[in-house]
Amino acid sequence: MGLSRDTFYRYKSAVDEGGIQALFDKNKRQPNLKNRVDEATEKAVSDFAIEFPAYGQLRASNELRKQGIFVSPSGVRCIWLRNNLGSMKQRLKELEKKSAEENFVLT
Q1: Helix (H, G, I), strand (E, B) or coil at 86
Q2: What is the pTM of this model?
Q3: Each residue's pLDDT tens digit in the chain (107 positions)?
């Protein structure tokens, strides 16, 4: 059958105990929310990244700190990656989408 004997009997015992549904992987990891920033900070970082797409994570962190939002450069990077803003190209694409929705001209 193309399976090892151990795998076959493991699958067979799982089906005997829980039916076909027992074969599907139920191990869905939950995110560790203790390490995340609050929603207001995440929104501020995302908005800043769209407003200034050419800034890097260090400069974005420093500029946000001037506004009273304290997040590390690596924290900025993690937020960008979660929101698909990791590269300048992705941030520019989001800026274009925002300008199309709000009808303002990019200069």
Answers
A1: coil
A2: 0.67
A3: 788 999 889 888 888 988 887 777 667 777 777 778 899 999 999 999 999 999 999 999 999 999 999 999 999 999 999 999 999 999 999 999 999 998 887 77
